[in-house]
Design goal:
The complex is a heterodimer of chains A (181) and B (419). In chain A, strand 6 (95-97), helix 3 (106-117) and strand 7 form a beta-alpha-beta unit. Chain A is globular and about 50 Å long. Chain A has helices at residues 3-12, 37-46, 106-117; strands at 22-24, 27-33, 54-62, 67-74, 81-89, 95-97, 120-122. Chain A has one domain: Beta Polymerase, domain 2. Chain A has a five-stranded mixed sheet. In chain A, strands 6-7 form a two-stranded parallel ribbon. With 181 residues, chain A is an alpha/beta fold. Helix content of chain A is 18%, strand content 23%. By secondary structure, chain B is α+β, with helices and mostly antiparallel strands. Chain B is built from 15 helices and eleven strands. In chain B, helix 4 packs antiparallel against helix 5. The longest helix of chain B is centred in the middle third of the chain and has 29 residues, at 146-174. Classes of the chains: A alpha/beta (181), B alpha+beta (419). The interface between A and B is large, with 63 and 57 residues.
Chain lengths: 181, 419
């Protein structure tokens, strides 16, 4: 765990951070709004004391209340993985700027996220479905998309503990929320 | 199908009755009742890029490759835009192998997800398990016993060799040489049988567990391994000798599909494809996990960044893996192979990411727990998916026949690309 990284990030991005940087194991996590993505990621990528030149992953998350886009970055200047969470995207019309201007390789990751969550990445010039057929209309990884054989919604739900029903809840750390039967 | 010479300038003549002109090539007249494949999608283009790709310039044509093509390493469809023999642009069409693993794991218990992520990269399944398993361990704050870590590294490196050996064969096969794949399958079969003795399965091992591994080393595995280790280096060098000293192969692969460091980073590349451009980025050293800090091995790099460099680099890695296996066997500690964990696990709500260095690059898993016994979200990051998109930037200007060589040198596995 790199304590100095958290302090550096808090000092540098004080005005845009949502809350303090969190650290656990080898990961540092910061949360920002969707509108600040371009500025923050450009600074993280370009500034020589940060130099997060490698985008390790781009993931969409549907918490049930809002959409998030999560970036994992790697830099030689720190021993930590940096997780940048862009939060607060509306579930009805999630929009966020694309990062393809920094990492061309994000193009397909954004296409995948669009395909699975319906998150629109403004500035991605090839934002079409990548896995599902072009005439498909749903977004399968959203929490309101249920599988036909979802055990939690079967008539036997709750009979066995592994089939206990669960509804989407925010996985906010520190708040233990148990759902279901 | 008939062809006629249409005038090069001006509108082509109207097609005779009962025929129409192909959208691929207006010089080709097709019978109206012929119902065969046209590559241009039947809807209006959805994006800027799609509109650009599906507009033909003068003298260009489309060629559809796949999804059932022997050199696409799975079921990949690539629409090529060609000008004569030169590739102008390509549009890979994915999804033929999409199984929705990320949705399935949200409806499975933590232990069950291990068998769900297994078939993603069916050539190197252990790394597909390794990433989510370590992510779960971070969610749970579990300490993995040292013997289990050693067994993980030992079996993982064997899996890496099996994967690289198969790469050697495939790469040569896509360049038109049949012999190396027969040789490399000797190696791969030995390792796969060995891992079958250890894990019970030949390909989809389902071996790693949260907090350890499923079974301890057994007699059959150890005797097969000892047997193989005594001749491994010689056999692999013999297999490499087939190619490294083959002038046709070397001249064909050198200077083809060149990637420089800046491009590799822009395309988020990792693993051998990045190291072949001169960046010594290997998570086993740059971000050590498991017991790798205790082991001695080198990170081979090359600077050329072409197909030959990527091939030679992987062969170097096989030798380093053999070194690691040697040390693992030497230092293997006694003790338990599983941490003490309840059978039904419920991690505290939180998020964890883990990356492991697989044979193709960084396998990542991003797990979110909401306090129940099923993962709230598990994002799998697969290097094949990332590397395949760079093909679109490498191919323009290449010959059609180089297409397969470039694609094979990046070593994508469609199971992982399509998830």
């Amino acid at each position: 765990m790199d304590r100095t990284l958290a302090r550096r990030l808090e000092a540098r991005f004080e005005s845009v951070l949502h809350g303090a940087a969190r650290q656990r194991h080898d990961q540092t996590e910061i949360r920002i709004g969707a509108g600040d993505v371009i500025d923050v990621l450009r600074s993280l990528h370009d500034e020589p004391d940060l130099a997060f030149t490698m985008l390790a992953d781009l993931a969409g998350v549907d918490t049930g209340k809002e959409m998030q886009v999560v970036y994992h970055l790697w830099s030689a200047t720190t021993t930590d993985w940096l997780r940048v969470i862009a939060e607060g995207l509306s579930r009805d019309e999630p929009r966020i700027p694309s990062v393809t201007f920094l990492w061309q390789g994000a193009e397909w990751m954004e296409r995948e996220t669009y395909d699975m969550f319906g998150i629109i990445f403004e500035g991605n010039r090839d934002l079409r479905r990548i896995y599902m057929p072009p005439d498909y209309t749903s977004f399968p990884l959203r929490k309101d998309f249920y599988l036909p054989d979802d055990a939690a919604r079967s008539t036997g739900a709750g009979v066995r503990h592994v089939e206990r029903s669960r509804s989407p809840v925010d996985a906010a750390p520190g708040v233990l929320r148990r759902t279901g039967a | 199908m008939t062809t006629e010479t249409a005038p090069r300038s001006g509108e082509p003549r109207p097609a005779p009755k009962g025929t129409h002109r192909s959208t691929d090539d207006p010089n080709v007249l097709l019978q109206d009742d012929y119902d065969f494949y046209e590559p241009i999608p039947p809807y209006t283009p959805r994006t800027e890029r799609e509109a650009e790709f599906y507009t033909l310039g003068d003298g260009e044509m489309f060629l559809n490759m796949g999804p059932q093509h022997p050199s696409t390493h799975g079921v990949l469809r690539v629409v090529l835009k060609l000008d004569g023999e030169r590739v102008v642009d390509i549009d890979p069409v994915l999804g033929y192998l999409h199984r929705g693993v990320e949705k399935l794991v949200e409806n499975a218990d933590y232990h069950q997800t291990i068998s769900q992520v297994d078939p993603l990269e069916y050539i190197s399944s252990l790394f597909c398990e390794w990433a989510p398993v370590t992510a779960y361990e971070r969610l749970l704050d579990v300490e993995v016993p040292r013997r289990a870590e050693y067994i993980r590294v030992l079996s993982g490196e064997l899996n890496r060799i099996a994967s690289h050996a198969l790469f050697l064969g495939w790469f040569a096969l896509d360049l038109g040489g049949l012999t190396p794949i027969l040789w490399s399958f000797i190696e791969r079969d030995e390792i796969v049988e060995m891992l079958a003795a250890l894990t019970g399965q030949r390909m989809l091992f389902n071996y790693f567990r949260i907090g350890g591994v499923n079974g301890d080393l057994n007699h059959e595995f150890m005797s097969r391994l000892g047997d193989w280790m005594s001749r491994a280096v010689g056999q692999i060098e013999a297999g490499m000798g087939l190619l490294n000293e083959n002038e046709i192969f070397v001249r064909r692969a050198a200077g083809l599909g060149v990637i420089d460091t800046e491009m590799a980073l822009r395309y988020c590349m990792t693993g051998p494809n990045l190291r072949a451009t001169g960046v010594p980025f290997d998570l086993r050293r740059t971000h050590p996990y498991s017991i790798y800090p205790e082991l001695e091995f080198d990170i081979p790099t090359r600077t050329e960044g072409d197909c030959l460099a990527r091939y030679l680099l992987r062969m170097e890695e096989i030798k380093q893996s053999i070194r690691i296996i040697d040390q693992c066997l030497d230092k293997m500690p006694d003790g338990p192979i599983m941490a003490k964990l309840p059978r039904l696990i419920r991690p505290r709500p939180g998020r964890a990411w883990s990356g492991v260095e697989g044979p193709r690059g960084v396998y990542g898993a991003y797990a979110i727990s909401d306090g129940t016994d099923q993962p709230f979200r598990l994002k799998i990051h697969d290097p094949s998916f990332i590397h395949l998109q760079a093909v679109g930037a490498l191919l323009p200007g290449c010959l059609l026949a180089d297409c397969m060589a470039v694609m094979a040198s990046l070593d994508p596995i469609m199971g992982g690309v399509d998830k």
